[in-house]
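Researcher: Good morning. I'm working through a list of sequences from a screen, and I'd like to move beyond sequence-only analysis. For each chain I'm collecting a predicted structure so we can compare shapes side by side. This is the next one on the list. No need for commentary yet; just the structure.
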Amino acid sequence: MIEDLARNLVELKNEFAKSYEGKSQIQEIIPKSNSELFPIIDPHLESLHQFATKNPIYYNFFEKRIGSVDCIVYEGDINRFWLNSIQHTSSKAPFSPTWIMSGYIATLFAKELGYSEVVDIGSGDGRIAFCARILNMESCSIEIDETLVELQKLLSDKTDFHPYCSDAAELDYGSFDFKRPIFFIGGLAQMGGTALAEVALRKINSISHLKNNSGWVFAGTYSQKYAPDPKNKAGWGTFIEKNNLKAIRTVSLPTAWTFHEPEPTPYIFSQPI
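Model: Good morning. Structure tokens for this chain:
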């Protein structure tokens, strides 16, 4: 069922991209209601729409029927937040969001794999941590940029996820009561993601009960704009092999940065060997 959701969302995005005539910097869609292609319970969909309507990134929304699905289109601009996110000397990747629906589906996969907590490192506006709370998973988001953390606090007042303004390299992960966490790494391998993952993995591997009990999710790319990795895995193959991880599932989902590209973003779910 989750694989079907992911596939249906990619197809819906492709159909939307063909017909979209707007000029906004970012745009995304969320189904208006439960349907055969998107059998998501109404309270979850309502929460996803609330996240978008409360989020100052989006300045406009409207209804649009795409194929057989009635959707709400959200248009936005992330320039201010993008510029803030790159001003930190230890920032590993600039802010560019996945789709809200993609975050929901990715956290559904994490829950299906048996993880109890979602930790989003380089979390931007906190949408992945937000989606995890909708699914009754514990979650926290780690973000170095103060402006984005303040934005997260605005969006988390009705859904209790926990934003932390911190450099991922300095955070004391042992202070959290993690039992079986899965870590989402914000950033493509070629755009600073491996550096961010490296420091987080080193910290987690120093905690005995987490070293072999944690999962990792890496956002990859097949775009020819970036040099391929000799071990593949959408840019993460060398990192995965070097750090004694194994890729257990790849889920392709729409993101802001792939809206005009034919291939969606592959999310590589990995765990220790």
